[in-house]
Design brief:
The complex is a heterodimer of chains A (about 400) and B (about 270). Helices cover about 40% and strands about 15% of the residues of chain A. By secondary structure, chain B is α/β, with parallel strands linked by helices. Helices cover about 45% and strands about 15% of the residues of chain B. Chain B is globular. The chains are: A alpha/beta (about 400), B alpha/beta (about 270).
């Protein structure tokens, strides 16, 4: 397995939809046709100048792209090593990168003549953004969300309801993201003739991985320009650190830098290690989970000997997922990216440090990435540029933060 | 070439001028022992038994089968137990052909070849893999054929005519037609007449294939679809098990009573 140059990674799959060993379309027969229709439409639209103009228009004028790229001076000084920078993707309308994918899915759904759109959500951001975009583009919206997540991410649920979306609580299994995605796919099986489905991350059948990756790549498109503006060139030592759950923000953060030598531009993905003393985690890449099928795609996934998907545990609802994007599995096996994990405690500690030194309020998901930056920065030279994707805002985490940190 | 037990079952029901009755129960629901007892008790009414491999992340199943699957998993059902259930059932006097139905990850994790070898050994006659659609299933279907195991292809109302032809071309002794856009156990949302219309247009392509209809088939709807080669009842049975357990009744006798009633409705 090797990454090809000059072809976007999302297009480097074979005719069956596999990136190396990963991806594919493990779906019920009923979904073959809607998936094929969506594939044809998307491939047409991405070459359609008018569609691209429309997308760029909404990204810029509605979502507020480009987002800031800024140096965290105080944190840099405190850590005393590499320069710490951040891309404040949470500046986007809605407070996270999920609005990019949601907007594109709604634009496609409109073109397909659909009146309804459904989606899954963990942290509630994918759901919030989809409800926001659905309202903007006049689509009726249903969001599937684990009952456990509904409790712990109340602010985002309030936002979804304010956007007139119906939240469908999912009570099966662990009542988190994995169950929400399953229930959403089941709903689509029954309603695919009238309804569009938005998968909230770079997971699911091949086409959903592609659409999401194509949408979030906006982040690295902006970053590439911003870095060149700031430094005049791509720095000799650049490290792009991002949290990884399903992997949509990290893939988007890295995509445009894919073909740089990894010695120059290193990708570091930080998965959710779960509570310090728990065996459960949401880090299939870090802890060597076996390959299996989850939600229509072959990937590294937490599972037992029998092929049952294992329950995960993480303080961060957005990372609390047993599998991971086939794109990241591919990046791991080709060694283009390096993956590690941060525990709940490390993420909370990172949140404390970042908010102490900077006027930045990263949610628990990017706090995992900051934990890694804080860990490695002191050991790195001053000409090393560490950039963390601050992909979500902590507003949604206020209840958890209050409970765990008293603030 | 010897004729497969699945094919034989259809030959018999055609002679009797009725559709084959196929039941679906989850292996190990609600326990390993009860699950085998259920099979034994319904065997005399049923033509082919489908047995589900319980999976905890099913993307094609509705509430009833999900509940049955979680129940079986919670009670510790493992692949080796499932094979034992099949083995014991197939060694019983009144056994019927057995089709295992499940999701690909469990087969992948077990190892395709090892799985098929084991299937052959215990007497599995057919396989349905919900999330391994054509053409991705071509290799696996070939492997099944080598072991004389029927790989059951699925067709749905969304399957295009062109695709239907290709799938039929690659199919074995039995094809499964999904009646409507739904997960298992959904309420029948189109008329039986419309379902049979779709069904007949598929039959016309190759009338020698045994095509069964599944999804949304209950006590109420089964007789209206009698013209099909076979009819699958699944969720209704799983629901009966749930109900029996809730009322602290014996699911074995209740399910047997229900299946005998289903049989009467199509005889």
């Amino acid at each position: 397995m090797k990454i090809k140059k000059n072809i976007p990674l999302i297009d480097q799959h074979d005719k069956n939809g596999f990136w190396g060993k990963f991806g594919g379309n493990f779906i019920p027969e009923t979904l073959k046709k809607p998936v094929e229709d969506l594939t044809i439409l998307f491939e047409k639209l991405r070459k359609d100048k008018k569609f691209i103009q429309e997308r760029d228009h909404y990204f810029k004028n509605w979502l507020g792209s480009p987002t800031r790229f800024t140096k965290l001076e105080n944190l840099t000084e405190h850590l005393g090593g590499a320069q710490i920078w951040t891309k404040v993707v949470s500046d986007l309308n809605g407070g996270a990168h999920k609005s990019l994918n949601a907007t594109v899915h709604c634009l496609i759904a409109k073109r397909a003549g659909k009146k309804y759109i459904v989606g899954d959500t963990g942290a509630g951001y994918a759901g919030k953004m989809l409800s926001m975009a659905a309202k903007k583009f006049g689509l009726k919206c249903k969001i599937f969300m684990g009952a456990k997540d509904i409790k712990r991410q109340k602010p985002n649920c309030d936002a979804m309801r304010a956007n007139d979306a119906e939240i469908v609580p999912v009570y099966t299994g662990s009542q988190t993201l994995v169950d929400a995605v399953s229930e959403c796919m089941r709903y689509w099986v029954s309603n695919c003739d009238t309804t569009a489905m938005c998968v909230g991350s770079t997971v699911g059948p091949n086409i959903f991985v592609k659409i999401c990756g194509w949408s979030t790549s906006q982040i690295s498109k902006e970053l590439l320009i911003q870095i060149k503006d700031e430094f005049g060139e791509i720095p000799k030592k650049l490290k792009l650190i991002n949290c990884v759950g399903g992997g949509s923000s990290s893939f988007g953060f890295w995509n445009e830098f894919m073909h740089y030598d990894k010695k120059q531009v290193e990708f570091i993905g930080v998965e959710a290690g779960g509570p310090k003393n728990s065996k459960k985690h949401a880090a299939p890449l870090t802890y060597g989970s076996k390959i299996g099928v989850l939600h229509g795609a072959m990937q590294y996934v937490n599972q037992d000997m029998e092929g049952q998907i294992e329950e995960t545990e993480s303080i961060s609802a957005g990372l609390d997922y047993p599998g991971v994007s086939p794109l990241h599995c591919f990046l791991k096996d080709t060694k283009r990216a390096r993956y590690t994990a941060a525990t709940d405690e490390e993420a909370l500690n990172a949140y404390k440090i970042v908010t102490k030194f900077e006027s930045l309020n990263p949610s628990l998901e990017p706090s995992h990435a900051f934990a890694e930056a804080i860990k490695i920065a002191p050991k790195l030279s001053k000409d090393t540029i560490v950039c963390v994707n601050s992909c979500g805002d902590a507003l949604k985490d206020r209840d958890i933060l209050k409970k765990r940190l008293g603030k | 070439m010897t004729i497969s037990p699945i094919n034989l079952a259809f030959k018999k029901t055609k002679k009797e001028e009725r559709p084959a009755l196929l039941t679906y129960t989850v292996a190990g629901d609600n326990t390993k022992k009860k699950s085998l007892e259920i099979l034994n008790s319904i065997s005399k009414y049923v033509d082919i038994c489908e047995l589900g491999l319980a999976h905890n992340t099913p993307i094609g199943d509705g509430g009833q089968i999900q509940t049955a699957s979680y129940r079986a998993i919670k009670n510790g059902i493992k692949m080796k137990d499932i094979f034992q259930i099949v083995n014991k059932f197939k060694n019983s006097k009144n056994s019927k052909p057995v089709i295992l139905m499940g999701y690909y990850n469990m087969i992948y994790r077990y190892g395709e070849n090892k799985f098929l070898k084991k299937c052959k050994q215990v007497g599995v006659n057919g396989l349905i893999v919900v999330d391994l659609p054509w053409p991705d299933n071509k290799n696996f279907a070939k492997k099944c054929k080598k072991k004389s195991i029927t790989f059951v292809q699925l067709l749905s109302p969304t399957t295009s005519k062109k695709r239907i032809k290709k799938i039929i071309n690659d199919s074995h002794d039995m094809i499964y037609y999904i009646s409507m856009l739904s997960t298992t156990g959904g309420k029948l949302k189109i008329s039986p007449k419309k379902i049979l219309e779709n069904y007949n247009s598929i039959k016309k392509i190759n009338s020698s294939k045994n095509i069964v209809i599944g999804f949304g088939i209950t006590k109420k709807t089964i007789s209206s679809l009698k013209k099909a080669d076979g009819l699958v009842v699944g969720s209704e049975i799983c629901k009966e098990i749930s109900k029996s357990l809730k009322k602290s009744q014996n699911p074995v006798t209740n399910v047997a009573r229900m299946v005998s009633l289903l049989k009467n409705k199509i005889s």
